[in-house]
């Protein structure tokens, strides 16, 4: 195995790590916001379940390693550039507290890098549209509608019971539902990096075409995403847990249940959807189903803008990095060095406005809410 | 070609599983509410303590079974 391949694998694991802390919010934001779980406990639990989830399925990894681009026409340098672009975009959106899609960033980087290196003919556009873009566009809408309907039903049924029991029950149930989202996230997102590493091994002939990821790849990817998740992406947790709406335990449980159902059923069929968009869609749906007036649509619109920008922005960054890296060893070193410098810079900027486990719930709520069962025991 | 059939399956499974699990958990909590002492201004639940506990336990078991079945479907593949 060459130094370059090892560098690509390490970069892929670095992306997986950023994917983990960028997406911790998906599983745990509402549970932390409602007080169902303490912030530190939540992220550690999410990390452990992401690791377990990574071993559940390889369908999505197969979609990425065998379908998006022509593996015979790209090189490890292209994949290195694509990953660098995706990491940079993940760090920038984390700094902004924007729950954008790590998956979009990865696919955008890969598509952009392949495009500049081998031309548009090396991209399997039909697979990109069928297995990635259409599910990516539909999944947040489906999750939102499912959560909306389920929230409406939950409140109607819960109105028949004792408020304190209902509130305590849903808060306890949130521990389970948040754990399920973390498991689903590990299943879906760890596979994307598995797919990229497998793709790299195929391009250099270390694995035959259409291979499933080897066990050591699964293990490394599971460990990287688990470590990133356990770090806690507090900025995005605050956005998802507090800035969209005031989430109550009933809504949090429904959002997490809907997210789990959409992510797991999609992963089972090989659809590489964005867990971030699914969970955000579900949070919006459950917030609307509980009390539409409490939703901050301006925040939701900002997120939508970020979603629309992620794929093309990561594609441009990936294309630039892949073009530079494919110039030779010097180009690859320049891309790697630039990435490290920018990552350190972003980290330093973030330290001026820190969001930590202790301050993640300090953000002001959207509007005071009254209606729900959870309020009685709060 | 877009796999509309598979996408429809995802939507139906997601909707069915979520509504079923959420509905069952909510119903379980309503059942278990019968065990709680009545508080001021709170209407009584539809269940006696014994029937409420039974309904709660059954609903929780069925909800758990749905979740485990879903996980089994994924792992078995």
Summarize this, please?
Chain B: It comes from Pseudonocardia zijingensis. Chain B: Keywords: Membrane, Transmembrane, Transmembrane helix. The complex is a heterodimer of chains A (378) and B (77). By secondary structure, chain A is mainly α.
Folded structure, characterized:
- The complex is a heterodimer of chains A (378) and B (77).
- Chain A is mainly alpha-helical and 378 residues long.
- Chain A has a domain of 242 residues.
- Chain A contains 14 helices and no strands.
- The longest helix of chain A is centred in the middle third of the chain and has 41 residues.
- In chain B, helix 1 runs antiparallel to helix 2.
- The mean pLDDT of chain B is 83.
- The interface between A and B is large, with 47 and 40 residues.
Q: Give the averaged pLDDT of chain A, no decimals.
A: 84
SS content category of chain A: mainly alpha
Count the helices of chain B. How many?
A: 2
The SSE string of chain B, one letter per element, is: HH
Helical amount of chain A: over 70%
Radius of gyration of chain A over all CA atoms, rounded = 20 Å
**Low-pLDDT ranges of chain A:** 365-378
Instruction: Provide the β-strand percentage band of chain B.
Output: under 5%
- Number-wise, the strands of chain B total 0
| DSSP, total strands of chain A | 0
Q: Using CB atoms under 8 Å apart, which protein chain pair has the greatest interface?
A: A-B, 47 and 40 residues
**Radius of gyration based on Cα positions of chain B:** 17 Å
Family (chain A): Belongs to the inorganic phosphate transporter (PiT) (TC 2.A.20) family.
Subcellular location (chain A): Membrane
Protein name (chain A): Phosphate transporter
Keywords (chain A): Membrane, Phosphate transport, Transmembrane, Transmembrane helix, Transport
